[in-house]
Amino acid sequence: MEIRQLRFFVTVAEELHFGRAAAREHIVQSALSQQIQRLERELGVALLERTTHYVRLTPAGDVMLSETRRILHNLDHAVAATRAATVAAELRVAVGDASFDTMPLILDAVRDHLPALIEIHHVEAGVPEQYRLLAEGRLDIGIGRAAHAPNGIASQIVRLDPMGVLVGDGHRLGDRDAVAVADLADTALLFADETRAPEYNQFVRDLCLLSGFIPTVFPGTVQSMMCARILLRERRCALCVPRSCTPIPGLRWLPLIEPATCYPWSLLWRASDDSEALHWVLCCAKSVSTKCGWMSPPTTPPEAGVAPGIPAVSLR
C-alpha cells in the first residue's frame, strides 16, 4: 500500500467521479482506476460501487475514507513539523567595533556555508557588555580579548592580529615603514572608553610598559573607530590598533616592531551552550582562521599603509 494510493482514494471518494478525480490528480483516468483496484485487492474489500451511471462508497469505503483522512492529516502534520524543525536557528552575535573585520569575515563564511540554517542578528557592544549579555542569555557569541572572561564564559582564540599604529596624513610618524614601540613615548595615544574596552586599553599600556615607558594619554576617549578618525586626521594623536582595522581614508596604518606584537581575538560564548548553531559557527571560524593564516602571523612587518589581503574562503 502506497501513500499516493490513499490520496487517490480520498480524491475519488470526494468527487465520486473518476474523470474529475483524475483531472484533480493530473493523471489519466485509466491509471487512477488501476491504482484504486490495486488498493482494493491489497485490502481484500471493495471500497467503491461503480456502474455506468454512478460511483459510490461501500460501507467499507466509508470507514476507509474516515480513517484515511485521519492518516493523511497526521502525515501532513508530521511533514510540517519536520520542516519547522529546520527553520533557521537565531544567533545574536556581537561584532565589537564594526571597523574590525574578524567577526564579519567569520559571519560571511557562516552565511555562505549555512544560508538556510542560521539567522544572524548583529549586536555592537564592548567586551564588558558582551559578558553581561552572554550571562543574561541575550547574546550568543561575542568577540574580544578573553584574558578576563568571568566564570561561565568559554572562549577560543581565532586570530593573532599584528599590532600597528594608526596616524593621520602628515603625522610625524607617517613617513615610516614601521614604528618601534619605544618611538611612541613622545606621542599622545588615544584610548578607548574604559567602560567599553578596558582589556584593550590594558593591552596597549602593557605593550608600552614592556618598551620602558608609560604612554602619554590623549585627553579624552572614543567609543569607536568612527569617532577616532576625526582626531587622527587632525594629527592630534595616534591610535594603536591591530591590522584587521579596515582602511580609513586620510589615515595610515604602520606596523609596530621592537617588539612585534599580536592582539589575540577570541570568540566568546556561554560555557553551558551546546547548541548545533554555536557548533557550526565555531567550525566556520576555525576554517576561516586556518585558510587566512590568522594563527600564523607574518614574522616580518607587512607593507605600511597597505590594507592586508584576505585570502578567499570557501567552506564548500
TrEMBL record:
Family per record: Belongs to the LysR transcriptional regulatory family.
Keyword vocabulary terms for this entry: Activator, DNA-binding, Transcription, Transcription regulation
PANTHER family: HCA OPERON TRANSCRIPTIONAL ACTIVATOR HCAR, TRANSCRIPTIONAL DUAL REGULATOR HCAR-RELATED
CDD domains: PBP2_LTTR_aromatics_like
PROSITE patterns: HTH_LYSR (PS50931)
Domain HTH lysR-type: 1-58
Keyword Chaperone: no
Name used for this protein in its record: LysR family transcriptional regulator
Presence of the UniProt keyword Cytoplasm in the record: no
Coiled coil location: none
InterPro entries: LysR_HTH_N, LysR_subst-bd, WH-like_DNA-bd_sf, WH_DNA-bd_sf
